[in-house]
Design brief:
This protein is 56% helix and 9% strand. The chain has 178 residues and is of the alpha+beta class. The chain has one domain. Strand 1 and strand 2 form a beta hairpin. Helix 5 packs antiparallel against helix 6. It is rod-shaped, with a radius of gyration of 33 Å.
Length: 178
């Protein structure tokens, strides 16, 4: 797993859930080339390595809303509607959790996949930082323009006053006034 295409594929598998950028166990297992059940077994065997800020399980509502519990669900009853029979709620892994997976899944493919995933997370952080920086610069520019608008308004008012014909004072009458 090498190249830009892999990083772009991984980027499409990163989601924002509960304020964290995460990857879903099913997507990770596909990238690693192992069944989701096996990936989760390895995690459970090493559960001390996965605190809640590294990995958490989605609620049924989150799984249904994100549409990632629907195709990964397993059922032995074929008559249930797709998405309504989530037997196993998916786990999601934060960037730190994905990094920890490399110590749990000890294979060459796992190492290559982890490198691609870490690069994708770094790229997303860089993009977000760029957007924040641009938003900050735009706000500064708006403040400057607002100040300049007021200054320009004052200049135009002064020019209008200079362009206005001078007001003639009523001439006083010459001579005696009864």
């Amino acid at each position: 797993m090498k190249g830009v295409a892999v990083v772009e594929t991984v980027e499409n598998k990163i989601f924002m859930i509960r304020g964290h950028r995460v990857m879903i166990d099913r997507d990770l297992s596909r990238l690693y080339g192992v069944p989701t059940k096996r990936l989760n077994e390895q995690v459970k065997r090493n559960i001390m390595r996965f605190p809640v800020d590294f990995m958490f399980q989605l609620t049924k509502e989150e799984a249904l809303i994100s549409q990632y519990g629907t195709s990964g669900s397993r059922s032995q009853i074929a008559t249930l509607k797709k998405g309504k029979n989530i037997k196993y709620l998916p786990y999601v892994f934060t960037e730190q959790g994905v990094a920890m997976l490399s110590s749990v899944l000890n294979s060459e493919r796992a190492a290559q996949v982890n490198i691609a995933i870490m690069r994708a997370f770094v790229k997303l952080r860089e993009i977000l930082a760029t957007h924040k920086e641009l938003a900050h610069k735009l706000a500064e520019l708006e403040q400057k323009i607002g100040k300049h608008d007021a200054d320009i308004g004052l200049i135009f008012e002064a020019i209008r006053q200079l362009m206005a014909p001078p007001q003639e004072k009523p001439k006083g009458r010459i001579g005696f006034h009864p």
